[in-house]
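Hi Y.,

Following your request, here is the sequence exactly as I used it, all 217 residues.
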Amino acid sequence: MVEWITTEGLTDYRQAEAWMEARATAIAAGEADECIWLLEHPPLYTAGTSAKAEDLTDPDRFDVFETRRGGQYTYHGPGQRVAYTLLDVGKRGQDVRAFVHQLESWVIATLDTFNVRGEIRQGRVGVWVERPEKPPLPDGSPAEDKIAAIGIRLRKWVSFHGLSINVEPDLSHFDGIVPCGIADHGVTSLVDLGLPVTMDDVDVALKQRFTQIFGAD
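Below is the corresponding structure, written out as tokens. Let me know if you'd prefer a different format.
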């Protein structure tokens, strides 16, 4: 069974990390069920294991938290749905690459609920959407914006951290970092794309699409 937890309000980042650490340990020991935790954080930046100091362009803007998840700098804040995925990857095939692909597919399927075509790109982590209404890039390729970030950590084959989908965050808050080390592309959200989508709408879609991607919970 996968337990679903939704926390209202804004959750302190270090408290969330401590809770995930404890829950992942309990799952690995067979003492707790797998879990998807849906929440929002106050405005903050996190630095993954591949973060580069020069990508933190405004270090005094928000609190910055070093974390041992994969990836580079990421913003979290109100209006962004964070889905922490505490799942037993060992029992799900012991294939980390396939698991990350499942997370990407889960985001893409969730976005498809709202007729948004999310895509992955070689060499770029996360999920992207084309923006044909924007000027093309210097090489002539279409402009693309990032709509979701993914970064996980494993302990004894149990995953934690997870993904975030931009529903209606303040997109200017991303200006203090180079998101995931990629400066050539922007950031968007469902509301920025012109869709009147609420957090509850996204939560319903995440739950519906989870079974489609990961099987019955």
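The helical segments are 13-28, 96-112, 199-214.

Thanks again,
Q.
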